[in-house]
Structure prediction request, 378 residues.
Amino acid sequence: MSEKDEQQIRYRLKVLSQIEPSSEGLARAKERVRDALSNTEERPKGSRTRIRQVVCNIQTLKTAAAAVLLIGLGFIAGRLFVPAVDTEELQATLEPAIRQRLQEQWRQVYATGFTQIKNELAQQISRDLTEFAEQTLAASSTMTDQRLNELVQLIEAARAKDRQWIAAALEQIELNRRQDNTRLGNGLVTLAARTNDLRRIEEN
Amino acid sequence: MQKRHKELLELLDRSGASLYTLLTRLTLREDIAEELMQELFIKLSNSRGFRKCTSRDAYARKAAINLAFDWRRKLRQKLQFPSEVCELVSNDASPLSKLIQTEELEEILDAIGRLNRLWRQALVMRYIQQQSYDDIAEQMEKTPHHARALCSKALNRLRDVLGANQKNTTEKEI
Prediction:
């Protein structure tokens, strides 16, 4: 863009900055805002709401305390009335099952991890390709923009030259017209003088 | 609630005129400026950001700018340009010149609306509201040097946007 365009932009911005609204409009707007604000104003919360909240909180606390008490009693009763257990037998029974379960879990984790890595790799490649395509597109778009800009400037220059030629031609036509006028005026003056001379000769 | 209401009324008395002028300049219509002014204060009354911010005037101005450009985006219809809104700079007051001027102003406002929020605010404050770099820096919470750079970049970007517009028009003509 040329310096002329920047001047135009600054000129338009200046015109915008000089726009002033009417005082009636301002008064109307202020009145509307005052009305709107008074309509949207909410009522303050009453003390009754706060009291209800406190009461609710006390009830909740009581319920929680009762629940804790009941759970504690149940736990103590359970500990007192459970029969004795042979720990070695229990260990022998549980060990193979636990081992088998752990092996299965490890296998699953391995399989899931492999699939996840594969998916991430595919996503990464896809992202890279998309990014590359976007960059190529942007570069090509910039180049096209530059070319079009140059074309626009060339067209503008040609139009300006045309305008200059037309202005020069119009100026020349105007000059010719003035010269013609002057010549015609001079001719008429000469004709009038000669007519007077002829009249004087005829009278004599 | 009462306190906030009072603060908003104080803001209205203090900055109401400048906000209304700003909205008129950005919409080119006084009736729309009135509506947006009302909407602005309702939004401010419900805004948490407004309650927490340090400079309420600056916050309100930013909100007004965003509101006006949102309106321009939503309504892409041809705008009227009432003669009483604008004092013409040119002596030539023919209908054609008025029409051309209106179109030029709308074009530049649409182009400003396409800039990002920060550039848009800087441009409006500097070139439409004619504020100093120090004021802009204070409102945007930046240094004056940064504000100056921001305005310059915004103007360059505006030139690019307008250039792209002209190019599109030429392409269509071709």
Residues 79-90 of chain B have pLDDT under 50 and may be disordered. The CA atoms of residues 87 and 93 of chain B lie 11 Å apart.
